[in-house]
Structure formats: C-alpha cells, structure tokens
Design goal:
alpha/beta, Rossmann fold, 6-stranded mixed beta sheet, binds guanosine-5'-monophosphate
Length: 225
Amino acid sequence: MLQYELNCAKIYKKTSVMLGGVILKLLEEKIMKDGAVLPGGILKVDGFLNHRIDVGFMNEAGREFSRLFAGLGINKILTVEASGIGIACIVAQYFDGADVLFAKKNQTKNLGENTYSATVSSFTHGRDYLIRVSKDYLNENDRVLIVDDFLAVGHAAVGMIELCKQAGATVCGVGICIEKAFQGGGKTLREMGVNLHSLAIVQMGEDGSISFIDDADAAKVLLCK
Ligand code: 5GP
C-alpha cells in the first residue's frame, strides 16, 4: 500500500511538473507571437494579458499557480488595480475559499481613511503613487498570495508586501505571469527571501529581440551579479 502511494505521489509530481512545462511553453509562444518590445524596456502583451484577456490561457496559469503554491493555506489573493484584477480573480478559483483583494491607486471616497498604504513608483507611468487597502479586508489571520501580470523593478510587489506587513498578514508567495529579468525586481524579491515564482522570465534586446531563461537559472544568474 505504502509503495503504491509513493508511486502515485511520484507520478503526480512528474505529471504536474510536465503541466508546468506546458504552461511555460504556451506563455513563451504567446509572448513570441503577440508580444512587442516598446522603448524603455516595456513588453506589450495586449493580445492576451493587458487588454484582451485569453481566459483559457489564464485558467491554465491559475492552475499552475495553485500547483506552485500548494499546501500553504492561502486564503487571500492580493493584487493591484487595474491589470492584476482579472488575473487574481481567475487564480483565486484554484485556491479553495480564497478571495481577492486589490490595492487601489486612487483615494476614492468609498475607501475611507481606515487604510494601510505604501508608496509605489510606477515603471510604466514614470510617477509615484500610493496604493491602499482597507483595514477591514486584510489582517493578521490572512495568508496571502500576491499576484501580478508583470515584475519589472519590483516596486508594486514590494509595496504589496509592505501592506501585508502593516496588517500583520503572512505573505506566502508572489506569483508573476511575466518577469523581466533585466530590471532587477526578481533579484530584489529573491534576496528578500520571498517565495517568488514567475511563469516566464524574459530577456529583451535593444533590437527588440525576446528570449527566455528558466526560473532556477535566472535566480542564480541574477543573484551572482
Ligand atoms: P514594477 O513595480 O515591478 O516595476 O512594475 C510592475 C508593474 O508595472 C506591473 O503591475 C505592471 O502592470 C507594470 N509593468 C511593468 N513592466 C511592464 C511591461 O513591460 N509591460 C506591461 N504591460 N506592464 C508592465
């Protein structure tokens, strides 16, 4: 019986690693097909992630995040508006009973003053802004998975970690769809000891070329720099 269970566990592990490889390949293909390199190190992926959302693909991404962050008791998916919201809602469905909290970038009247806040410097907009969540929706009992579409310099992720810190919540991990290896956010988070998983890690050349590196290698290369 024990041997049978061990074999099943091995097959499950192998199968889920294979599924991980499939989603990685799918994402790489999508980036190569739909992605465009814009000046300033911006990768435009409006065709499936940032304008039109490919829900079938996002479902597979959600399934992969649930595999990568399994068994951590995650009950809350935290992201930042606006592009993270759609992703977070799909990912949450793979974490039993988890709900989504998105940090707001504007001080709307209905948010009130009872908030945790952190300053984030926007890579794409080139300005600083405050992100906020209500104290009513984040607390010390929460076990949080932070998700976002991109990881560049890392300010958005560090800002969200700061919100969790203020609330006393536990950050179980950070799940990113596309990490840009050359902008240092991955290095910063890994050096902080954050449990970071990026579905794809890209390098972009000045000539508009795109290439990929695998997670473990990226971590090693970036940490050695
Ligand atoms: P960071 O705070 O890591 O510098 O930047 C992450 C945030 O900026 C993400 O929430 C994402 O929306 C946006 N971002 C950064 N780089 C890119 C990019 O190359 N393409 C797109 N579409 N968004 C990006």
